[in-house]
């Protein structure tokens, strides 16, 4: 882990979170794979990507290609199945009431990210966009690809927009594609994460509950 001696000395003003397996309990793309009849293969590639064993962009394109022909109605059904990680609702509502700015970023898809962000009142979102034609997935994506570098830049851009120094930002994620974001943030939190992410984070939480983050932030 990084040096944590200065964590408590900063008053944080921005929290940017990953979505899948962080804000929500599931990996939405794995549920899509199940709906498309390729669940086992999809989960294997997802696990490799989250561990950093395969380049994220390559893994994403492979998995999206496997979804070719999936009906939009299948995505709508999956959206209704998504569940918040324990403590997520309390965590988001509390930091918003305290005046924090918030962001939700995902290497997954805006189809799932944007409705959830709207429901929770999260201000900023950034996620990949699936190509859809005739109410079916084409197997392609609209650029740009939201990879690890893009996630970090998203945090930097929001901080700049609100005139927040990076040392007053918090990033929370679980996978290798969150590594750059956790590294640039003032406080990087690895949430039920692979060991490689825990090594570069300031703090690791290894229980599936977001409420303890409030204590870490001094609330």
Report a brief summary of the structure.
By secondary structure, the protein is of the alpha/beta class. It is 42% helix and 20% strand.
Describe the overall structure.
The protein contains ten helices and seven strands. The chain has a single domain, classed as HAD superfamily/HAD-like (Rossmann fold), CATH 3.40.50.1000. The protein has a seven-stranded mixed sheet with strand order 4-3-2-1-5-6-7, with helices on both faces. About 45% of the residues are buried. The two termini are about 25 Å apart. By secondary structure, it is of the alpha/beta class.
Oligomer classification: single chain
Helix content: 40-55%
| Mean pLDDT value | 93
In the CATH classification, which architecture applies? Answer: 3-Layer(aba) Sandwich
Give Rg in angstroms. Answer: 17 Å
* Mass-distribution shape: globular
Q: How many individual helices?
A: 10
Strand tally? 7
Enumerate the spans where pLDDT stays under 50 for 5 or more consecutive residues. Answer: none
Strand order of the largest sheet: 4-3-2-1-5-6-7
What name does CATH use for the topology? Rossmann fold
Strand content: 15-25%
For the biggest sheet, the summary is: 7 strands, mixed
* Structural class category: alpha/beta
Could you tell me how far the N terminus lies from the C terminus, measured between alpha carbons in angstroms? 23 Å
CATH hierarchy, class? Alpha Beta
> How many individual domains?
1
Give the SSE order as H and E letters. Answer: EHHHHHEHEEHEHEHEH
